[in-house]
């Protein structure tokens, strides 16, 4: 949209001494003639744009105006780039990529090189690189325009169910994307993992948004419980980072007690079992019994 381009041009000129019309045209994917029309529009709006003639000339904003009206510092822009890069790395949207390119124009090439050399964002796990490609265009349209969505959903037991929802927001937790939505089937707010959604359909029907202030992001069909774990010293630093130092207490010479947040699904049971004999679940009893059952079934596989 033109208004977006005009605002972006102003932000860019506030950060740079001057820039050529051809460079602006390339950055915003328009012709130089369009850029000159934009500059004329900005001048009419009272923003003092200056054009510098010659081979080293270009377009700039009056210095006094920059001092009074500067919008973002270099630190602000780098923070924006970090956030957008993390979203683009996880979601791979062309719109994010376009925005990143435009914002990079607001800081010097040296600052960009420093940023890229010091920080790398890779949301994929160490082992394997599963790519999640949700129908992002439909999700984005539904979220922006308050339109209903329907989809098939595969739960933790691989059972397929149909859902129609009011979508409210996308949530990135760890490296997993979720849709936070009001589900008509469950008559409440739920978190749906995007990788488990299929046959996504965008409806023309719109809805009146509900108040989200009292709706936590962990509203899901499986509620979180707190486990009491007894761990070896070798796991203490990991547990402190995962659960918080306040939830890890000394027990004896090389053992520690941990209050461990837990959701009762296959993924979380697998996470717990991955600690091997360095970790024992003491409470609650039903989780301890489920772990024993899973260990026995695993042993049965290998004893056949």
Automatic annotation (TrEMBL):
Transmembrane residue ranges: none
Superkingdom of source: Bacteria
Pfam families attached to this UniProt entry: HTH_11 (PF08279), WCX (PF25583), WYL (PF13280)
Keyword tags: Transcription, Transcription regulation
Occurrences of domain HTH deoR-type (ranges): 2-57
The protein's name: Helix-turn-helix transcriptional regulator
């Amino acid at each position: 949209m033109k208004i977006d381009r005009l605002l972006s041009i102003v932000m860019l000129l506030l950060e740079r001494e001057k820039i050529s019309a051809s460079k602006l045209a390339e950055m915003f994917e328009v012709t130089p003639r369009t850029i000159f029309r934009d500059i004329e529009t900005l001048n009419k709006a009272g923003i003092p744009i200056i054009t510098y003639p010659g081979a080293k000339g270009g377009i700039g904003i009056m210095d006094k105006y920059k001092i009074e009206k500067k919008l973002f510092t270099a630190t602000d822009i780098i923070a924006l780039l970090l956030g957008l890069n993390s979203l683009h790395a996880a979601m791979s949207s062309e719109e994010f990529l376009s925005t990143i390119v435009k914002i990079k124009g607001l800081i010097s090439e040296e600052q960009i090189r420093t940023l890229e050399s010091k920080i790398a964002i890779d949301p994929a796990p160490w082992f394997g690189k599963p790519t999640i490609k949700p129908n992002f265009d439909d999700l984005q349209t539904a979220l922006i325009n308050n339109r209903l969505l329907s989809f098939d959903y595969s739960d933790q037991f691989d059972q397929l169910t149909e859902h129609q929802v009011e979508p409210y927001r996308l949530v990135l937790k760890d490296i997993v994307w979720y849709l936070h939505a009001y589900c008509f089937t469950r008559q409440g707010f739920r978190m749906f993992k995007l990788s488990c959604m299929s046959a996504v359909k965008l409806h023309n029907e719109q809805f009146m948004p509900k108040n989200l202030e009292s709706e936590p992001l962990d509203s899901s069909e499986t509620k979180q419980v707190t486990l009491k774990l007894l761990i070896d010293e070798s796991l203490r630093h990991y547990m402190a980072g995962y659960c918080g130092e306040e939830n890890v207490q000394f027990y004896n010479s090389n053992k520690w007690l941990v209050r461990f947040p837990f959701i009762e699904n296959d993924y979380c049971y697998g996470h717990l079992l991955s600690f091997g004999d360095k970790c024992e679940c003491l409470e609650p009893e039903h989780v301890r019994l489920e772990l024993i059952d899973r260990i026995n079934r695993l042993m049965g596989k290998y004893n056949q």
